Amino acid sequence: MTRPCVLFVCVANSCRSQMAEAAAKALGGWTVWSSGSHPSGRVHPMAIELMRELKLPLEGHASKGLDQVPSVEWDAVVTMGCGDACPSVRAKRRLDWAIPDPVAGSVEQARSIRDDLLWRVRELHKEIVDKPRTPPQDKTSRR
Q: Which pTM value belongs to this model?
């Protein structure tokens, strides 16, 4: 059985999708990437600091474009409320999380946005990775 594959997308791939990728990778059990429709070329310093607070480092991450992710059919593609439909990306399931850009407000607002994002990643993980497995049915009759 192969591991589920999930792609997180925002416009710049510098904050929201990077934080989602780091949180998702920490949970394990799936293959995770992040990307941007118009990558900025860097991870935003606020994202680095927000994730450092939770011991989820973003140092070493790079802002990537959609053309830099594997050409696979993703189990889920999650856009971050940025209106990106990502038509060139094949997906079994598409989700759009209406998540505001954390760098647009105060540090307290950014932490709240980060925490909401991490909660959503955990919930998606439960659905995709931890979903209950149906035990095989015993085909023999019981009398």
A: 0.88
